[in-house]
Amino acid sequence: FEVHVDDAALSTAARHSLLMIVKECLNNIQKHAAASKVQINLAAQAGKAKLSVSDNGHGFSTTESSEGLGIKGMHERVLSLGGSINITSQPGQGTEVLVSLPT
C-alpha cells in the first residue's frame, strides 16, 4: 500500500463518504483484483477534495461489466455531496477510482 493524505477541510459527511468509498474500493480489490499494489491519494486542490484509489490488479471491462451494489453506492454517495466519480479499468491493466468533492 501507498497512502498519501493532504488533510483537506472537509465536512463530516464528506469525510464519512470518502471513508466508505475507500472501504468499498479495498473490498473490491481484495475480492476481485488480485492486486500486488494499491495506491490511495487524497488531496485538496482548487476548492475540491480529490481522492484516487488505484491498483495493478486484473481490471475489468467497464463497458461489459454490470455495476454492482458497491459501485452504485459509491456513485450515490458522491452525487449526494455534489461531486463526481470516474472509474477507469481495462482487463489486465488494473483499476482507478477518481472522486472529486467540493470542500
Word description of this protein:
With 103 residues, this protein is an alpha+beta fold. 33% of the residues lie in helices and 33% in strands. The protein contains 2 helices and 5 strands. The protein has helices at 12-33, 69-80, and strands at residues 2-5, 38-45, 48-55, 84-89, 95-102. Strands 1-2-3-5-4 form a 5-stranded mixed sheet, with helices on one face. Strand 2 and strand 3 (48-55) form a beta hairpin. It is globular.
Report the principal-axis shape: globular
Helicity range of the residues? 25-40%
SSE order, one letter for each helix or strand: EHEEHEE
Number of strands: 5
Task: State the end-to-end distance.
Answer: 26 Å
Strand content: 25-35%
Low-confidence stretches: none
Biggest sheet, open or closed, and with what strands and sense?
A: 5 strands, mixed
Q: Which radius of gyration do the C-alpha atoms yield? A: 13 Å
Number of DSSP helical runs: 2
> Structural class, please?
alpha+beta
What do the pLDDT scores average to?
Answer: 91
* Biggest sheet: strand arrangement: 1-2-3-5-4
